[in-house]
Amino acid sequence: MLTRHRRQALAALGFATAYGLVRLYWATGGRWGWTACDRTRSPGRAELASGCGADDVTTLPLVTGWGAVVLCVLLLVVAAAAARRPGRVTAGSAAAAALALVVLSFPGHLLFELPAGAAGRPTDWRDVLHRVAMLAGGLLFARVAVAARRPGCGHPGARGPRPVPASLRGWAYAAAALPLLGFTLPHLLWWWGVPLGIPASVLDAARRDLSPALVAALTAAPAAGGLLTLGLTHRWGQVFPRWTPWAGRPVPRPLVLGPAAVVAVALTSYGLIGVWLMGTALADGRTDWAELGRGWAAAGTELVFLAWGVALGVAVLGYERLTRPRCPMCPGPVARPAPPATTTPR
């Protein structure tokens, strides 16, 4: 019977194989599912339908062509090693692979492209689906890293919710309040025509470009995310509530840690990129402090993303430590498998 760790490692191996074959197909000239669109601009529907002329591209750049194939080979090696023997080395390698896949997928981009596409805005779905696949692979390798470092001991774990420390509550409440006060509320005011910290001309142009459905999606998503963040500090974040079909059962840690960690990485990276772009614009003379002051609310949104991501990330780490498996029958905070019994010859 396969152990949970081995099943996860084989799933990561399957992803690395399938994704490697796709990258090999693209590197050798195939173009089905590949896109040549530039994420820094908004192409029209006609361009998106053809992948911005993907079939006309004869050779891919080294990094996105054969370089990506080499990366997939490394993923295969890491997954095969993790399936064969768990340990600190394979856990570290799987964690590095997970981080690389998550960064390359850039989940901050997906946070906006997915609701925008669902609301009917022209979206490069080839690029979005490709990034979702990389993000899913990153989560698979993250689970392999956790399982390889902390194999179970076979004893039943302690059940029931654990008391939440005050520090975790503070970070979680900050991560819940920041999107409501720093994103949802000002965007609703802008949509209603209140020029709060943004020039009226810019506001009018934005209101013409945004549909009510898109505004609803962009404002509701942060509010819903803030509400779910509270689960990190409440009983229903550790044990399913009574009104669910799984009442009383422990909430699987990956169900909480996976999405929350991805969102934290996405928000932090998006905020860092925004702050870096503002800094380079100031250094190059493309903007000045007076212009940033006139649009202080829009510029401050980047700081909100950064603070939100940091607060959520610290809260996720606190939840991970709080819910870390502990075996009352084994020494140490994490269960370890007992060595096989041996008989000394006489």
Describe this structure in words.
The chain is globular and about 60 Å long. It is 64% helix and 0% strand. Helix 7 runs antiparallel to helix 9. The two termini are 35 Å apart. The longest helix is centred in the C-terminal third of the chain and has 32 residues, at 253-284. The protein has helices at residues 4-27, 45-49, 66-84, 88-105, 107-118, 125-149, 166-191, 200-209, 212-229, 253-284, 289-294, 296-322. It is mainly alpha-helical.
Keywords:
transmembrane; 0% strand; disordered C terminus; mainly alpha; 346 residues; 12 helices; transmembrane helix; 2 domains; 64% helix; membrane
What secondary-structure arrangement, pairings included, does this model have?
Elements: H1 4-27, H2 45-49, H3 66-84, H4 88-105, H5 107-118, H6 125-149, H7 166-191, H8 200-209, H9 212-229, H10 253-284, H11 289-294, H12 296-322
Helix pairs in contact: 1-3, 1-6, 3-4, 4-6, 5-6, 5-9, 5-10, 7-9, 7-12, 10-12
Keywords: Membrane, Transmembrane, Transmembrane helix
Transmembrane segments: 63-82, 94-112, 132-149, 170-193, 213-233, 254-276, 296-319
